[in-house]
Design goal:
With about 475 residues, this protein is of the alpha+beta class. Helices cover about 25% and strands about 25% of the residues. Strand 23 and strand 24 form a beta hairpin. Bound molecules: ligand LQZAQKY5 and molybdate ion.
């Protein structure tokens, strides 16, 4: 029975569904957030934020944190000058803010308690910071800080300010008292406009609240998703393990890489090509080459069945007298049928059963290199992409640079080059043109029933340069 391109694609997905469900349900690993592997994985379950994003309320600008009320009447004619508090940079602990003062804050520094708006430094008179005094860090002693200070410092007021910031900020309606002024470094900033409450203040959790979902189950760990997870305080990421695929090239004509070969031998092109493709889609791949011996092939597949989730064979399935894959797998229940497509016409399925492990599905692809590649790209890759949380490719419409003919009984998948004018030039159809495949930019599907397409006709082109 001949299948259609669409029905075969659906059947591959249906046959692999139980395997994917099993791996989804059973096989989670944990990777560190900085692990280079992470970017090729998918979350194993929903992940919620440990920290809010932003982690704390902080300044969006280098400038002065103030109370909006203190600048409510500032104007060009009536500028308001406020004494400076200690300066805070990103990484400093949160400071207290004395009402009626201006606290220099750098981008990313915590908004000091009691301040509610930030004025960028360039919007103040003079446009630049004067010499600032940075607040003592948690690990710096008050004494060393005082030694470095130039302004009049009251040790008692400074210590009180550091020990009891809440008390100071709660009295926001109170004028600055003498002791507090004594604790402030010297200097002032002059403002000529009001600054509305909340301006240039990045609120804790305004991007994402703590406990909220950062990543759904099955989400691709894209660079941006890794960034969001890191920002939300996640250090270990639960990920699905990779699908393990055995890629098996078959044929007496195949030489192992590096092996000397006689005139009848060819290098194994399909194995490395499919391994590279499937790895791009997140699979862990083992390669093997088996000669045209059905017994050896059956033995090899049984050995790997416990280790691999999926086996892909190439070659040995068409109408020849010595079809190793057919001969090995038909006795084990393998089914082989033609698909009305070109390349990729001969296709097969099998399943290897060994005790104690779930059955291992086998996809049997034809041996011609373009046929093997397109079988993997068009039938297996959609399933792997979905498992890896990757987006399916989207087509782009371009016009044909020339007339194209196609057998009306077959769904043809042609390789195309994009011309400098943006049209598409179709390459020859032969399924042995592996170099043409490597130089192609796009695939063009010509469905069953179409035997000719005229130059200038718009066609869908599919990028496959994964
Ligand atoms: N009488 C018929 N002959 C063929 C038919 C048909 O319908 N009737 N179909 C043709 C089509 S279409 C294809 S595709 C091939 C598929 O044949 P197999 O899957 O049995 O593949 P092989 O015969 O083993 O190999 C085909 C071709 O590809 C080369 N090959 C195989 N493996 C590799 C590899 N790993 N690296 C590089 N090249 C490889 C192999 O040497 C052959 O030249 O059958 C047609 N014949
Ligand atoms: O259909 Mo075969 O896969 O052309 O070469």
């Amino acid at each position: 029975m001949t299948c259609t391109y669409d029905s075969h694609r659906a059947e591959v997905a249906a046959r692999l569904a139980p395997l994917l469900a099993h791996v989804r349900a059973n096989a989670a690993e944990s990777l560190h957030i900085a692990d280079p592997e992470l970017a090729t994985r998918v979350t194993a379950r929903e992940i919620t934020a440990h920290l809010p994003i932003p982690a704390f309320t902080n300044s969006q600008m280098d400038g002065y944190a103030v109370r909006a009320v203190d600048l409510a009447h500032a104007s060009a004619d009536h500028p308001v000058t406020l004494p400076l508090g200690y300066a805070a940079a990103a990484g400093d602990p949160q400071l207290w803010h004395a009402p009626g003062s201006a606290t220099p804050v750098m981008t990313g520094a915590p908004i000091p308690r009691g301040a509610d708006t930030v004025v960028p430094v360039e919007l103040t008179v003079g446009g630049q910071f004067p010499k600032l005094m940075r607040a003592p860090r948690e690990n710096a002693s008050i004494e060393s800080f005082v030694e470095a200070a130039t302004g009049p410092i009251s040790m008692v007021a400074l210590q009180a300010a550091i020990d009891a910031p809440a008390e100071l900020t709660q009295s926001t309606s109170q004028p600055v008292d003498t002791a507090t002024y004594q604790a402030l470094p010297s200097g002032s900033a002059t403002f000529h406009a009001p600054s509305p409450e909340g301006r240039f203040v990045r609120k804790a959790g305004e991007d994402l609240a703590a406990g909220a979902v950062v990543a759904a189950a099955g989400a691709a760990l894209t660079p941006t998703m890794i960034g969001a997870l890191a920002a939300s305080g996640i250090t270990q990421v639960p990920v699905r393990r990779r699908l393990r695929v055995l890629v098996c090239s078959t044929g007496d004509e195949l030489a192992h890489p590096g092996e000397s070969h006689n005139a009848a031998h060819i290098p194994d092109a399909n194995g490395p090509m499919l391994a590279a493709l499937l790895r791009r889609y997140g699979a862990e791949v083992d390669l093997t080459i088996v000669p045209d011996s059905p017994r050896q092939l059956a033995d090899r597949l049984r050995v790997h069945a416990g280790l691999a989730d999926l086996i892909v064979t190439m070659g040995g399935i068409s109408a020849g007298a010595f079809e190793v894959v057919r001969d090995a797998l038909e006795p084990l229940g393998g089914e082989f049928h033609p698909v009305a497509m070109q390349p990729g016409g001969p296709q097969g399925f099998a399943s290897i059963t060994i005790e104690g492990v779930p059955d291992t599905p086998v996809l049997c692809f034809p041996g011609n290199p373009v046929s093997s590649f397109l079988s993997a790209e068009l039938f297996l890759a959609p399933v792997l992409r979905e498992f890896a949380g990757l987006r399916p490719p989207a087509p782009r419409t371009r016009t044909l640079a020339h007339d194209v003919e196609s057998p009306a009984t077959k769904h043809q998948v042609r390789r195309g080059l994009i011309t400098p004018e943006g049209t598409v030039r179709i390459l020859p159809p032969g399924s042995h043109f592996v170099h043409d495949l490597a130089s192609a930019d796009v695939l063009v599907h010509i469905p069953v029933g179409v035997s000719e397409i005229a130059a200038g006709t718009p066609v869908e082109t599919w990028s496959f340069d994964v």
